[in-house]
Amino acid sequence: MDATADRPWTRSYAPGVPATIAEQTGSLVDLLTDAARRFGPRVALDFFGATTTYAELDAQVARAAEALRRLGVQRGDRVALVLPNCPQHVVAFYAVLRLGAVVVEHNPLYTAQELEHQLTDHAARVAVVWDKVAPLIRGRGSVETVVAVDLSSALPRLKRWALRLPVPKARAARAAMTAPAPGALSWAHLVDAAGPLAADHPAPAADDIALLQYTGGTTGTPKGAILSHRNLRANAAQGRAWVPGLRDGEETVYAVLPLFHAYGLTLCLTFSVSIGATLVLFPRFDLDQVLDAVRRRPPTFLPAVPPIYERLATAARKRGVDLTSVRYAISGAMALPPATVELWESVTGGLLVEGYGMTETSPITLGNPVSPARRPGTVGVPFPSTEIRIVDPEDPSRDRAPGEAGELLVRGPQVFAGYWQRPEETAAVLLPDGWLRTGDVVTMDPDGFVTVVDRIKELIITGGFNVYPSEVEDALRRVPGVRDAAAVGLPGERGGEEVVAAVVLDDDASTDPEAVRAGCRQHLAGYKVPRQVVVVADLPRSQIGKVLRREVRDRLLAER
């Protein structure tokens, strides 16, 4: 009997990719301990040229864990991290885990109101934060102790000295990196004063909670996804298995994605450590900083999003910067245009493949094979040890016929345990037999390649017909003069919803809203054509570049 009969996608795997991964029995802390043992002298972190070896990183984590223990952090406690990408972020992440405590990642660019909700929800008493945002944290939620991190202290000595020059440019650069944090403790002072954590301090177990990752901000109130050490280790192992050409202890990974996001966290904080890679850290994506780093320490593996690939490839070609060191690139979080794949691969000679995931799955569940078998335009096939079903969104017990669109369900070792203190919302997405409802409408071809049609929660229902926003947006972008677009449903004059589009025009475009609607009629049924087109200067996006349709809808409603 064909062992792949129920999993046709395994026939499309790149050579050497297994159908399953081994069960993960250790913790994330073990990944770092093992990397320090195997690759101690190797550079683990590079921050604008300042380097930290794996042996040094392991030692810093031990001291930071002891410093946090002295602040009263115990097993099971939540500790808030509100940090951009920097060496201190990596150290704090593993130090919290070493104590058996739970990391809660936060976006340092959030407003006080957004932070207030999350800090209240998880009730962390200790927060390790970027000193520039420390005033937003103190006194919010249950936070009693704020530990401030000065990003500039991690810079190379010469760069630190340059920031202190009495010239406007140096003052502006310093102000962008650090600020006084009255009332907060100093991270550097706490760690320097601490000895290493006792070796016999109880270590976390595989099924302990490692991370609360907040999600749902585009569809409702953010809620904390509970991810265990086993979940996150499994996804790192799946990622490692997916790219058999990687060489442990020899790769260089660029952290241009934020570590506080599920995508950046797994690909950079856990996966990279699991293969003993050098992680080059960027506080934010800055084209000039990335190109400077390419000359200093060329990347070999790059996880990013489509706009970053397009901008980086275009700039590298224009400036004559060599990107051929990048053998593998993984794209996620939004659709990857085939034109971007063609551009990137023509500049680098490496492969760019698209993946699919969500915070609740640690986050990756599907990916295009890292081989000529990849299919641009799809999100690929299930990862090793991952099962999928396509079902009726109204009745997930009923499977759709082959080729028919339906809701994607996934099951595997990377699937989360539920939402923090939200049993009803957990029950709504996590079925009793372990299947997770993704809320995404997809189709699957006979070879197991999946194409995302749209999100159920963003479905527009007009005149009794279902309209998928991405279908409308694809048609809008095909209209000459339209650079970008977002389609949402707004209340109609006669009840129900009507399709409304926000569009960004090219700088020199003379296109008017009626011309845009006329262009859409060439590609869409009449009920799908936007009833109204609003020209905007830009579209709101998440930290990793995804258009936030909910915010677009709110803005359009406010203008009405």
TrEMBL record:
This is Long-chain fatty acid--CoA ligase. It comes from the Bacteria. Residues 471-546 form the AMP-binding enzyme C-terminal domain. The lineage of its organism: Bacteria, Bacillati, Actinomycetota, Actinomycetes, Micromonosporales. Residues 33-420 form the AMP-dependent synthetase/ligase domain. It holds the Pfam family AMP-binding_C. SUPFAM superfamilies: Acetyl-CoA synthetase-like. Transmembrane segments: none annotated. One of its GO terms (molecular function) is long-chain fatty acid-CoA ligase activity. It comes from Micromonospora globispora. Gene3D superfamilies: 3.30.300.30, N-terminal domain of ligase-like. Its EC number is 6.2.1.3. Keywords: Ligase. InterPro entries: AMP-bd_C, AMP-bd_C_sf, AMP-binding_CS, AMP-dep_synth/lig_dom, ANL_N_sf, ATP-dep_AMP-bd_enzyme.
